[in-house]
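Friendly challenge for the regulars: who can give me the structure tokens for this chain first? No prize, just bragging rights.
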Amino acid sequence: MVKASLHLDEITPHIHAYLVPLDERGKLNCKALFGTRVKMYQLQDSFANALGHLGIVRGVKGSVATHTKVKKYYAAVNQDSQLLDLERCIPQPQAQETSEAYRQRVIKLLSPQLEVINQQLRERDRQNRKLIELKQTASVSEQLRYSLETELYSLKANHERQNLSLSEVAYELGLNHSKHEHNPLSLVMRVNKCNFDDAVVWLRDRFGETVMTHAVSNHALNIVRQTPSSIFTPPIPSPKHLLVVEDYLNQKHSIPQKLLKTLQERGLLYASTDGNAVFIARNLDGRTTGAYLYSLNTSENNFSLYSGSRRSSGWFHLSVGGSNRGLVETAVLNSSPIDALKIMVRNAPHNHRTLYLTLDNENAPLPSEFLKTLTNVVVAMPEKRIMSIRKILPNANAIDVSKYNQQQQFY
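First reply, four minutes later:
Bragging rights claimed.
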């Protein structure tokens, strides 16, 4: 077998197989592969048996039918219908002509017309079979259309049933009208003097779970549509605590004063009024989405999320090296803002633009679409995190920070 090519660009899918008939000795021997007429019959029989479940029928054994070229076939099919005038077409016998000679002469004379007629009849049979198939397809399509229309009617009916009107609820509550209310839940809570949970149960008991669920959904939508989206407000800076934060990060984690000043100027690090270090989280467009608080007053020195932060919308990140307007070539993923700064210091100087991005938890979302565009992604995290990230970024270079040599660079 040299090559097998599957063709799916035609009505009938098929495979072109290219064979070189080599025998056991490696010699070209077509007869050894396909054999005699008997072996050809056996091959055709086995092929028909293998495809019998598809409705494919074997050709007639010993048929004397000849192959007609496609162009010749359709030329005959597209001709005008042939009508045989036997009185005109059949010749008169010639003197001393034998019956066999006369028979052969008639066959030769009528064969062209009969061939055209036979091909047109075969084409008509094919068209009739195709018409039957189309009718069957149309019948199935009609049944499907009817089924979909029935389902659509049912959905419309259910949707209309889900739209619970205030008048229905007011009637059930014993009211003649429902003034100053915009939705069924508010009406039930006001009249029954109950809380939200009790109002939900009341609607379910009177109108069923489906209607109740729709009413609760509409109530929630009305609330969010009438309430403007909240804007994150970071903690208030406290200049008097800033020196303590700087000294701690410099002495405890060996982060240079110059880098700390740069972070302050960019608004990414400062001190809060309660003495915490504040690390600002942003999306990749630079919009502030949250803040991490690092407590200097506890022995654990854990990070906490500031109230109102949108944790899944952004990260603590910063880019260094190369041109300020240069494209990021490398991303280093890490576990905390302090880790990001410590690793950045170890990797200095940076010959090209490098992004340091913090993933604070195993559930933290990755900016995967952006990271996939980079030539180099380094995961500087414990082994467990490396495995989970590699499921999303298979080409990421993994470095376990627990085994990291301070004198070694990541790239």
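The mean pLDDT is 83. The chain is about 45% helix and 10% strand. Your move, everyone else.
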